[in-house]
Automatic annotation (TrEMBL):
Domain of life: Bacteria
Keywords assigned: Ribonucleoprotein, Ribosomal protein
Name of the featured protein: L7Ae/L30e/S12e/Gadd45 family ribosomal protein
Length: 106
């Protein structure tokens, strides 16, 4: 498993990761989300929605892994989108999951 995915699991156990469409959107709108991770196999409308929302609210977005990989990293069946709510975890995870050009800082 990727070291950043292990860090994502640690963040989940620390209560610093949110999962699920409504929960993540609420965190993006409130500014609670410090990083959004979107599965590469997410539906096209979900990809557009999260790119637009993260861009508007200036939240970094990383597209990484499949829904099964993201779910496995946080101990769930499958997850399309995750939000990291801690700056420290968000920085470490973003750095490890993406090449610098792939992290969309808005």
């Amino acid at each position: 498993m990727n070291k950043s995915l292990s860090t994502l699991g640690l963040a989940m156990r620390a209560g610093k990761v949110l999962a699920g469409d409504d929960t993540v959107l609420k965190a993006v709108r409130s500014g609670e989300a410090k990083l959004v991770i979107l599965a590469v196999d997410a539906a096209a409308n979900a990809q557009k929605k999260y790119r637009d929302k993260c861009s508007h609210y200036q939240i970094p977005l990383v597209e990484y892994g499949t829904r099964l990989e993201l779910g496995g990293a946080v101990g769930k069946v499958d997850r399309v989108v995750l939000a990291v709510t801690d700056d420290g975890f968000a920085g470490r995870i973003a750095q490890g999951l993406a090449k610098p050009a792939e992290v969309e800082e808005h």
